[in-house]
Each structure stands twice: as structure tokens, then as C-alpha cells.
Amino acid sequence: MASHRDFVDYVAEQLREAGVIRAKRMFGEYGLYCDGIFFAVICDDQLFVKRTPQGEEAFPNLPKAPPYAGAKDYILVEDVDDRETMAALVRLTCLALAPKKRWE
Question: One Pfam family of this protein, by short name (predicted)?
């Protein structure tokens, strides 16, 4: 079952404190970007955030699950109404995923 655009828009609105959120349609579902960094997918109207050591350390009790058959586990955000937790998780995740700057 494909995700509904109104759910995607709601999640993006909930995450606005984390940065500029953009949703891109991918294979019938959606990929989410924060300030240009791919950090999550929405599949079947569920939010799955990429796993990072920082995110898992800060939020050890959030469940892990694959967003689709054959995928690696992501952090499953079940409470998309908890704006504060979601924004904190996304900020930590995107900091961990950001390209490292090389000082020369």
C-alpha cells in the first residue's frame, strides 16, 4: 500500500524545527531530506529514520524495523505527533550523516 500525500505533508510539517524538509516520491513511497540530507523514508504511512549510533544512543527505546521487505532496519517512529522527539532525532541523524569536511 502506498503512502498518502497528506500523511507525508503532516510529517514534514511536524519536522519543520529540524530544518528544511523535502519529500521526494520514490517507488510509490517517499524519501525525506532535511537540508539536503537523505535521512528517512515513509512507507505505508509510517516514518522510518536511518539508524546512526547517535540516534540509537539518544533514543534507545524506539523500535527498529525494515520499511519494506529485504531492507535493513530503520528506527520506526510510531508517534509522529511528538514533534520535539522527532525533530531531535532528525537533527542527530542528519549531523551523523552529513559529509565530513576535510581541512587542508
Answer: TfoX_N
- Ramachandran bin of 55, using left for φ above 0, alpha for ψ from -120 to 50, beta for the remaining angles: alpha
Question: Whose grid coordinates read 547517535?
Answer: 54
Q: Report DSSP state, residue 74.
A: E
Residue showing cell 516520491 = 25
87, 77 contact by CB (below 8 A): no
**If you search the block for the grid coordinates 514534514, which residue do you land on?**
12
Q: Is residue 19 within 8 Å of residue 32, measured between CB atoms? A: no
User: How confident is the prediction along the chain (104 residues), in pLDDT tens digits per residue?
Assistant: 689 999 999 999 999 999 999 999 988 899 999 999 999 999 999 999 999 999 999 999 999 999 999 999 999 999 999 999 999 999 999 999 998 776 65
Q: Give the global pTM.
A: 0.91
